[in-house]
Amino acid sequence: MIAEVQTLLGPVWPVIWTLIKIMAIVVPLMLAVAYLTLAERKVIGFMQVRLGPNRVGYGWLQPVADGIKLLMKEIIIPSAANRALFLLGPVLAIAPAFAAWAVVPFDLTLVLADIDAGLLYILAMTSVGVYGVIIAGWASNSKYAFLGALRSAAQIVSYEIAMGFALVGVLMSANSLNLGKIVLAQSGGFWQWYWLPLFPLFVVYFISAVAETNRAPFDVAEGESEIVAGFHVEYSGMAFAVFFLAEYANMILVAMLAVLMFLGGWLSPVPFLPDSILWLLLKVAALLFFFLWFRATFPRYRYDQIMRLGWKVFIPVTLVWILFVGAMMQTPWAYLFH
Amino acid sequence: MIFQDYVFYALAAILLFAGLRVITSRNPVHAALFLVLAFFTAAGIWLLLEAEFLAIALVLVYVGAVMVLFLFVIMMLDINLDRLREGFWNALPVALPVGILMAIEMVMVLSSKHFSADMINAPVPKPAGYSNTAEIGSQLYTDYLLPFELASVVLLVAIVAAIALTLRERKDSKFIDPAEQVKVKRADRVRIVSMPAEKEIIAVTEPEAEKK
Predict the structure, then answer these.
(1) Which of A201, A285, B9, B192 has its CA 20 to 30 A from that of A6?
(2) Is residue A32 part of a domain?
C-alpha cells in the first residue's frame, strides 16, 4: 500500500512522508497539551479539596469546550500596538516549542531526526523561545506587558546558563550529544540512570526547567497579582490560547528532556520488564505531576530572589559538579560516572 | 539543479533581504529582528555545508543570547526616530566617498583570483557515521589548543572588565544580604517585655488637667 503511493508520488514522496511523521508527533502533542490543562485543574482542585471541572462530559470534554470558546472570541489588536510584531509574537512562542521535538527519541528507532548534535539543537531551540515573549511584550505597547517581557527575558536568559551547565555534565558522562546515545549510556536499570551520579545537576536542571517555562513559583513574568498577566495581557481569543499552548508544550518538552537525560528515557527500571515507550510516557507524566504540585504548593518567589538563586546558587553548584565529574573520570571510580 | 541548490538559493535570498532590511528599516527593533533572521538563515546555509555543530552554535550563541540582550537594550532606550533622522543627509559628503571606497575594495578583493570558485575545492561529502562535533572537539583540544585557550582568556578578561566597569553599589539602595537574613535570631528582632495583664488606671491629677 505504502509502496504504491510512493511510486505514484515519486520525488515529492520524501517531503510528504516527513510531513506525515511530523503530524504523528504534533497531533499527540497537542492532545497531551489539551489534557495537561485539564490534569492541572483537576490535580490542583483535589489538592485544594474541590472537584475541579466536572460538568462538560464529566470534565473530560472541558479542554474541547475551552478551545471552542477561545476560537470564537475576537482577537483584539490594541490601536497603538505594532501590528505585525503583535501577531508574530505568539507564533514565535510556539514554533520553537514544537521544533525542538524533531530530535526527541521516543524509542530506539522512533525519532524524526537522529542528528549528531541533538542536545545542542534542543538548547538552541529552547533559547529561541524567549523571542515570542519579548516581542509580544514590546509590541503590545503596554507597560504591564513590557514589564512582564523584561522580567521573563532576564529570567530565561539567566536560567539557561545553569540548565546548559547541567547538561554539560550529562554529555561528559554519556560521551555524546546524541539523545539516543545518552539514553543508551544509562542502560542497566534504575541505579545506572544519571540521576544518581549527577544528582546535583538533576536537581538544578529540574528547578531551572520550572523557571525556564515561567511556571509557579517562578511565574513573575505573568504575576497576575502585580502586573495582571505580564507579556500576554493585551492578547485575547486564539492569540492568547497560542501562548497558553506554548507554555504547556514547553512544560512537556522540558519534562521529556529531564527523563531522557537523567531518568533513562524508555529504559525499564527493573531488568525483568522490557524497555518500552510506555516507561517514557510514565516518567514524563510523573515529572509533569511535580510541575502541578509545585504550583499548588509554593508561594511565588520575589524577583531578586529568583536572580540570586539562578546566578549565585545554581551556576556555582553546576560548575563545581562538572569539575568533580571531570576529576573523578581520571580516578579508578570513573565507571560510576559513565 | 538538485534539491540542495533550491534550498541554498532560497536561504541566500532571505539572507540578503534580511541584511538589507537591517540597514534600511526605520525602527531599530525591526532592524534587530531582521538581524536575527539573517543569523538564522546563515545557520541554514552552514547546515548545507554539513557544518551542523557551527550552525547550531550560531543559533545558540548569537540568536539565543547576544541578540536577546541587544533587543533588551534597544527596547529599553526610548529612541526618538525623528531626532535620529535629523541631519541624516548632512553626513553625505563624507559618507559617500567612504561608501564608494569600501565598495571598490570589496569588488577588488572578491574578483581577485584567490576568491574565484576554482581556487576553493568543493567540500567532500562525509560518510554517514562522521561526527562533525567530535572532529571539532578533538581539533580544538589538540592542534589548536593554544589559540583556543588564549581566546578564552581574552573573553574572560572582557567579562571581568565589563563587570568591573559597570558595577557600582548605590549607597541608598535597600540591598539585602541573604546570609545576614538567615543568621537572624528571634532575640535580634523581638523583645519580650513582662508586664501585668491588667493595670490600675491612674486618675489624672487636678493640676495637670488645669494646665490644658
Answers:
(1) B9
(2) yes
